[in-house]
Amino acid sequence: MKGQPYLISLHLYEKSLYLLKRFDPIVCQKIKEWILAAVKKAVIIPHINPDGDAIGSAYGLNKILQNSGISSVVISPGDFPTNLSWLGKSARALVYEKETERCQKLIDEADVLFLLDFNDIKRIGKLKDFVANKSIPRVLIDHHPDPEIAADYLFSDTEVSSTAELVYYFIEETDFIKYIDPESAEALLTGIIADTGSFSHNSFRPGMYRIAGKLIELGANKERINTHLFNNFSEKRMRLLGHCLSLKMEIYSEYHTALIWLSKDELKEYDYHPGDTEGFVNYPLSINGIVLSVFFMEMPDMVKISFRSKGNFPTNMLSSAYFNGGGHKNASGGELKVPIEEALKLFRQVLPKYSDQLKEESLKLI
């Protein structure tokens, strides 16, 4: 495949009527013909520390490609949360950090790399060094702003609920929808539910509900998904949440902000596993007057940071300016390779700079 890249900026909805538009049919036909003619082996890569959308979209696309006759595999840069281990029953993801040589061989043999749910090659950790200079054709499907990855085909829309929703559009418009089965439908619906908090945010577009309904028709079980995503944690995880909210939450009323933080010793005390703190950052947003919620977690080699906000406060601007991060307006992340005390000090120093914006957003909530 030569030429390109094909940038498909998927502004799928008329702003006034919220009517679903179609992909560019010429480009979709081109990629369909290319896949059918030239793709025998595919590798799908989600971002490191994958969430429900990353894993759901990866497993969903993987099963669909396998059903079409393509040899496909998911390679995760690292481990993924235990509450997502129920997905991918027929084909488990390989973990690059654990099976490096096998993963590298599969990537070298691939006819295409599908990169899902990230906009910067740095988001695949150590796998970046191996993938960055490969000449293998790439298809990027993502809903984060300002994608910086060189790809032969780029499917990008920041207004769509999730990458899983974009994957559905992709398979629908390239005529791979006929290969969807209950397992792949459930994986894609998991991605949509995970990134919308079970349809509680970023879920105003009718098209998303059309897709959710279709996935349920195709065999996805919404109740089972909700149980696994939101009611499938250990006792220690629940106690860790209680510890956070009771002892580790700081309220900065003058800035309409809440801060939660955990040290690596506290994580060890509560037997932390990847995914255990998923959703912690959202809880303070239920407090009256809070516009911004931030969660700092000390890891062995960095401090991982999550940002959430209400209204129009741009967490992605804050995270990119000071915390080596980025993401969506109301949900973003970052990281600092410093002791957690220094990370917290920086945040407390930076916060007053956003006082006016936070106050303005708080007044809108009254």
What would you note in describing this structure?
The protein is α/β, with parallel strands linked by helices. The protein has two domains: 6-230, inorganic pyrophosphatase (n-terminal core) (Alpha-Beta Complex), CATH 3.90.1640.10; 235-364, Roll (Diaminopimelate Epimerase, Chain A, domain 1). Helices cover 38% and strands 17% of the residues. The chain is built from 13 helices and 13 strands. The strands form two sheets. The protein has a seven-stranded parallel beta sheet, with helices on both faces. Strands 8-9-10-11-13-12 form a six-stranded mixed beta sheet. Helix 6 packs antiparallel against helix 7. The radius of gyration is 20 Å and the shape is globular. Residues 1-22 have low confidence and may be disordered.
User: How are the strands of the biggest sheet laid out side by side?
Assistant: 1-7-6-5-2-3-4
Global morphology: globular
Summarize the biggest pleated sheet.
Answer: 7 strands, parallel
Report the top-level CATH class of the largest domain. Alpha Beta
Give the DSSP E fraction (strand runs of 2 or more residues): 15-25%
Roughly how many Å is the radius of gyration? Answer: 20 Å
Percent helix, as a range, is: 25-40%
User: If classified by CATH, what would the architecture of the largest domain be?
Assistant: Alpha-Beta Complex
- CATH level-3 fold name of the largest domain: inorganic pyrophosphatase (n-terminal core)
Q: How are helices and strands ordered from N to C?
A: EHEHEEHEHEEHHHHHEEHEEHEEHH
Structural domain tally = 2
Give the number of helices: 13
Please identify the structural class as seen in this structure: alpha/beta
Give the integer mean of the pLDDT values. 89
